[in-house]
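Key result, reporting period 2: structure in, sequence out.
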């Protein structure tokens, strides 16, 4: 961040932790998706005599059925898990941003739920003045993706991974017509949430951009730091070893 006003280091720390986590998750998703195409030695780490589910309890299972079902549904399961982690990363970052602001003389009044925190974040994100010239035309789309992921997360966590009316009603209305997955059949649909790799990629890119723009604007509006945290200008490679091993 080359600027005459130094960025707030605590905000930078929160941002970098979340940014690294989102990038690591994207790399992990790609690695596992590719590795699953090359199964080794008939899945030797999957037990055949039962699955230990607690320190005391073991559940009987059929290894072949697990492999068959997981293979057939892998893309959906993998995308679901990635979205759950991705949403948690951004939510935690916003909570930590708010904590830093409160400790540095910039307290914010925000209800204690993720939807409210997204709503609080949106004005900062939308008014950022760095990056591509087409940001104004894309801002609502990126913000809609963040809210869409929240709604998908709620279905996965609170509705057994199936559609419910709240999917199309529990939305941030200021963003216009809410996004929905292509497999959703309408308000009466109660079928399973069918998420694919491309859905996750779209949402992941928006979450990373949302995080970058929120951090930039908080540094600017709260602390007077106008320099951008830009990878392109630095020509900086992803530091996979540091990100993955947390070194």
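The corresponding designed sequence is given below.
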């Amino acid at each position: 961040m080359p600027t005459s006003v130094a960025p707030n280091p605590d905000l930078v720390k929160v941002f970098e932790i979340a940014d690294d986590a989102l990038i690591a998750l994207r790399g992990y998703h790609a690695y596992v998706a590719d590795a699953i195409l090359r199964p080794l030695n008939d899945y030797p780490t999957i037990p055949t005599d039962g699955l230990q589910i607690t320190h005391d309890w073991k559940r009987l299972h059929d290894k072949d059925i697990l492999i068959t079902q997981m293979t057939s549904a892998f893309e959906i399961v993998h995308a679901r898990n990635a979205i759950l982690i991705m949403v948690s990363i951004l939510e935690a970052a916003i909570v930590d941003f708010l904590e830093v602001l409160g400790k540095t003389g910039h307290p914010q009044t925000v209800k204690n739920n993720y939807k409210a925190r997204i709503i609080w974040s949106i004005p900062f994100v939308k008014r950022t003045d760095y990056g591509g010239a087409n940001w104004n035309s894309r801002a609502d789309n990126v913000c809609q993706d963040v809210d869409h992921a929240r709604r998908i997360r709620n279905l996965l966590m609170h509705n057994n991974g199936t559609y419910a009316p709240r999917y199309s009603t529990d939305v941030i209305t200021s963003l216009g017509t809410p996004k929905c997955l292509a497999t959703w059949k309408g308000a009466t649909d109660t079928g399973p949430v069918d998420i694919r790799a491309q859905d996750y990629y779209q949402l992941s890119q928006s979450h990373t951009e949302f995080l970058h723009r929120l951090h930039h604007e908080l540094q600017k509006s709260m602390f007077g730091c106008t320099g951008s945290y830009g990878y392109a200008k630095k020509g900086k490679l992803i530091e996979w070893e540091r990100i993955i091993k947390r070194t």
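The longest helix spans residues 63-103. DSSP finds eight helices and two strands in the chain. This case is discussed further under Risks and Mitigation.
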